[in-house]
Design a protein that fits this description.
This protein is mostly helical. It has one domain (9-129). The protein is 85% helix and 0% strand. Helix 2 (17-44) packs parallel to helix 4 and helix 3 packs antiparallel against helix 5. It is globular and about 50 Å long.
């Protein structure tokens, strides 16, 4: 059973006030990424699976740019995990795939997997070249 002082050790590892600030920034950017995803999806219109695919490919490209630019630490946590993690969405992609016939779902899987890797590599290459 956890000891009484376990929460103090966790807080100390998180960096005290800086850890709280980072946690709040993660929450804010996660919410912002999710809202950006919803608004972009609505703007892209139907069919929904194409919009989800485009958002996920754009997110893969952006994550490639971040890593290619050498962003690390809290910057990568905030931009990559918080914002892009909620801007892109695995659960919506899975829901979209489940609603398609098997052949179309297979094409979507291939496009997302191969396209995501290609977009991430292109983003990385672009940022590394600059």
């Amino acid at each position: 059973m956890p000891g009484r002082d376990d929460h103090r050790r966790v807080r100390a590892r998180a960096g005290g006030a800086a850890g709280v600030t980072t946690a709040l920034a993660v929450a804010l950017l996660s919410g912002t990424g999710a809202v950006a995803r919803v608004l972009t999806s609505r703007a892209l219109g139907e069919p929904a699976h194409r919009g989800t695919l485009l958002l996920n490919l754009a997110g893969a490209f952006a994550l490639g740019v971040l890593t290619g630019a050498g962003v690390t630490g809290d910057g990568l946590l905030l931009a990559g995990t918080a914002f892009l993690g909620s801007f892109t969405t695995f659960s919506t992609w899975m829901l979209d795939e489940a609603s398609l016939p098997a052949a179309a779902a297979g094409r979507l899987l291939a496009a997302a997997t191969l396209g995501g890797a290609a977009c991430a590599a292109a983003g990385w290459a672009l940022a590394a070249a600059v």
